[in-house]
Amino acid sequence: MDICIRQPARARLITAEDPEVPVPATLRYSVQDPLAVFVDFPPEAALDGEEVTWTFARSLLDEGLAAPAGDGDVHVRPCGRGRTVLEFHSPYGVALIGFATAELRRFLARSYAVVADGEEDIGTVVERGLGTLFGSV
User: Which residues pair with 67 in a beta bridge?
Assistant: First the structure.
């Protein structure tokens, strides 16, 4: 059974030149990939007019709510009392997106209600990944 949580979020693009720009975003979690979270941005929020999805570890989001976390394409860090910044690195540059920390906490709580921390079936995730890699899925 595929349980998927979708939660619209109020996000703001942080720029050096202009005031912050509202950006539509959807936070997503699926039991099909229980270690990951997804942040979906619609075509109007992307430079190339295509929908963009960022995928990263649910644990990274959880850690980044309390202290700076991440060393790859996604970094998460608290920014003041009520905001958390997600930093997305791509070949085209870096995007800083601010989210209300309470929204992110609510999303994580909903995901943990579906699959508790430490209860992810890692064996199934590895099998699915290997199947995709070797074309047997």
Answer: none
Q: What is the CATH number of the domain that holds 76?
A: 2.30.31.20
CA distance 137 to 131: 5
Q: Return the bridge partners of 57, or none.
A: 36
- pTM, two decimal places: 0.83
Query: What are 88-104's pLDDT values in tens digits?
Result: 999 888 999 999 999 99
Sign of CA dihedral 128, 134, 136, 137: positive
Per-residue tokens: 101: 């920390």
Q: Which range marks the domain in which residue 125 is found?
A: 4-133
Count of domains observed in the chain = 1
At position 56, the amino acid (one-letter code) is F
**What does the pLDDT look like over 49-76, one tens digit per residue?**
789 999 999 999 999 999 999 999 999 9
